[in-house]
Amino acid sequence: MIDTDRDWFALLAPQLAVAVAVLEEGHITRAAERLGMNQPTVSRMMQRLEDGLDVSLVQPHGRGVLVTAAGKAFLPAARQTLATLRAARQELGDVVDPGRGQIALAFLHSLGAWEVPRLVDAFLAAWPDVRFVLSQGAADDILHQMYRGEIDVVITAPLPEADGDQSTVALSEQDLFLTVPAEHRLAERQQIDLRQVAGERFVALTPGHGLRAVFDALCEEAGFAPQLEFLGQDIATLRGLVGAGLGLAVLPHGRFEDTHTVQVPIRRPRAHRTVGAVWPLTRILPPSARRFTDFLARDGARVLREADLVNPAG
């Protein structure tokens, strides 16, 4: 039984897999590296496909390639076809061995230390032979990967609105706190209105992260535009910057002891984010992923709630 997407696509749709990689990367060499192939082979397969279609999907442009109008039109259906083939491989594997399977799960960096391990562990208690392929990234990036068919389920925050293309389930509500250096003048405060720190320097995540969108909305509601001194890619980095006295941040409560920062509750505006799961409705998920989404919808919130009772944040 073929157990990798690369081997499966090489058997059933080799040129299609190459075309999707080239169109997404906009670069032959990067596409070859992604596929584990050499550059001349990728170039030849791309040329054969274009000859067969009698249309140019890409054109040379500097060191890379420029996707043509035909390539842009071709890419969505090609992605969908590969996603369908991926699901077919996993459906076949489920027939051969219903207790096994693979789930492509993506999540925010900030959810990797606590929430995701608890959810995966609880699911594997019932389905121990299922394999997870894990990836992390900014909210926008991992949701785009899901839409492209590369990811089955995303755990993110804030939770996007459900629509006809995706299904969502809320798993937990996280309060957000003003994080200040331990020696800061506000470190002893019991609570604070965010507008009271309008003149302070802040550190924040780069655009595209869910928490950055929440932070921007909170500042707007409080009536000020924050002075951003540093931008980071993960919450641990922001917490370190705060501890070094380089700015304040609005963050979820840390679960691990940190003597360099203090978490001050925010009274107004209400500061929180909803952690939840998202999965696509535009394609059929493999059986193992469908079991996981059923588990999340039925038991995910309870698993996190009970874990918090045993080891609460902070």
Characterise the protein shown here.
By secondary structure, the chain is of the alpha/beta class. Among the domains are: 1-96, Arc Repressor Mutant, subunit A; 174-273, D-Maltodextrin-Binding Protein, domain 2, CATH 3.40.190.10. 44% of the residues lie in helices and 24% in strands. The chain has helices at residues 5-12, 14-25, 28-35, 39-53, 69-96, 115-126, 139-147, 210-222, 235-243, 287-310, and strands at 58-61, 64-67, 101-107, 130-136, 153-156, 166-181, 192-193, 201-205, 227-232, 249-252, 261-268, 272-280. Strands 3, 4, 5, 6, 7, 10, 11 and 12 form an eight-stranded mixed sheet that branches. Strands 1-2 form a two-stranded antiparallel ribbon. Helix 1 (5-12) packs across helix 5 and helix 6 crosses helix 10. The longest helix is centred in the N-terminal third of the chain and has 28 residues, at 69-96. The mean pLDDT is 90.
Helices and strands: which structural class?
alpha/beta
State the end-to-end distance: 47 Å
CATH architecture of the domain at 174-273: 3-Layer(aba) Sandwich
What is the C-level CATH assignment of the domain at 174-273? Alpha Beta
Query: What best-fitting shape do the alpha-carbon axes yield?
Result: globular
- How many individual β-strands? 12
The CATH homologous superfamily name of the domain at 174-273 equals Periplasmic binding protein-like II
Percent helix among the residues?
40-55%
Q: Which labels suit this protein?
A:
314 residues, alpha/beta, Arc Repressor Mutant, subunit A, D-Maltodextrin-Binding Protein, domain 2, 10 helices, 12 strands, 44% helix
